[in-house]
User: Fold these one by one.
Assistant:
Number 1:
Amino acid sequence: MITTVQQHLLQEQQRHGDASGTFSWLLGGITLAAKMVEAKIRSAGLGDVLGAFGAENVQGEQQQKLDVYANNAMIHCLGLRDSVAALVSEEDEEPVTFNRSVERGKYIVIFDPLDGSSNIDVNVNVGTIFSVHRRVPALSLDESILQPGTEQVAAGYVVYGPSTVLVYSAGNGVHSFTLDPTIGAFVLSKEHMVMPEKGPYYSVNEANLATWPEGYRTYVEELRAEGYSSRYIGSLVADFHRTLLKGGVFLYPPTLKQPKGKLRLLYEANPLAFLAEQAGGMASPGSGRVLEIKPTGIHQRTPFMVGSRWEMERLAAVLTREEEAR
Ligand code: AHM
Ligand code: MG
């Protein structure tokens, strides 16, 4: 028999002595929103769903109509759940709270509703990324939101590709589910995924090469010399998904234009770093762990390097070597 994502979560929770089901109810909100977004994406081009919405988000980026739709779907599907104290989205400047006492909400959900939106109009994979934190009663709501990634209770993403795949971890391994369109449910496809220890690909926007710190240039040159192949989709979820399955390394180093990196700590780097570590890989902002960064703002950016253990250890060694030579 099949196992749906909801059943899988319930089993996990029972194993961990939390039988209330609150958490699986919350994840149910995310999967419902994902199915709404997937339905919209599948028919993109038929209706008036492609193209710019006509406004900019807090990052000063053009919002696409599907960005707005995906954000509304997440807020609608999660906002009705009492267990949600606040929602934090790439598309909203401030955390979204609800007309009920924050004390009733045990969880904070942080998300990028539609990652890779520059790829929508050209029919290339996009995704939804999410991170779940516990609201800590002894902390203010803002402090609860700004907990480091190590405190995530769950994280995951949905990649809208040739099939729609959900990958999540609640701290006990990484599991993937494929949307079965005939029954409308995410069905278990891989349990306890392990990122290969070493892979064949590096993935980076090489157009920025001239303005990376020296160490990253040396590192990529070394990988090239060793026969690595290059892959870059420009949708973080899709580039990460490949890295999880095939191994290798994804890099978004500091650049002249984005000295603090381009990707966002709370809803891009942290959830994917959590998944990478759960699958045996590593994630770093240049040195140390992404998950140990103490956030100072909800839309803060970070350099983000993630991948197989071998490539990540090699990166750390090259960056240290370059640092010492200076
Ligand atoms: P978005 O959340 O506005 O879609 O932007 C994030 C995207 C990531 O999906 C991707 O890894 C990165 O931006 C690509 O950036 P670039 O075009 O600079 O290579
Ligand atoms: Mg994004």
Number 2:
Amino acid sequence: MAVRPIITAPDKRLKARSQPVDSVDDEVRALLDDMLETMYAADGIGLAAIQVGVPKRCIVADVHMADEPPTPLKLVNPEIVWRSDERVSREEGCLSFPDHYAEVERPESVTVAYRDETGTAQEVTAVGTLAVCLQHEIDHLEGVLFVDYLSLVKRSIILRKLTKARRAAAGA
Ligand code: NI
């Protein structure tokens, strides 16, 4: 396993649509392992493959509490097959938007169909933080970012700050 560099916004790759995985092979399993290690190293709760520059429909998540054992999830070709009518607004962040958070409204609960790391079809119904996380990560596979739910003004402010921070880091 290895920690891979995370792409930060603004970056065109984050707007790309990721491609379905044909077969869950060793390369895909290695990618999923690297993604989990990268996510843990960055203190995140979710990560999509495109965030490490791989346009494949793979996501990982782990929303366990700090004092509980890890509950890693690896999802290949995840697809939302049910959404609750109830919607909730929660603060979201993203490893590709370091230090930026914003309220996003989404369905409170979703059911996601996916393939696990052995290629077996699975389904998970999630509420709370996991529901938010899975919807956020699946959005990444369509090139949709949490800031896309914000007003143009709010989105512009965040992107300008990120560009400025990157320039400052490059000049340091
Ligand atoms: Ni994200």
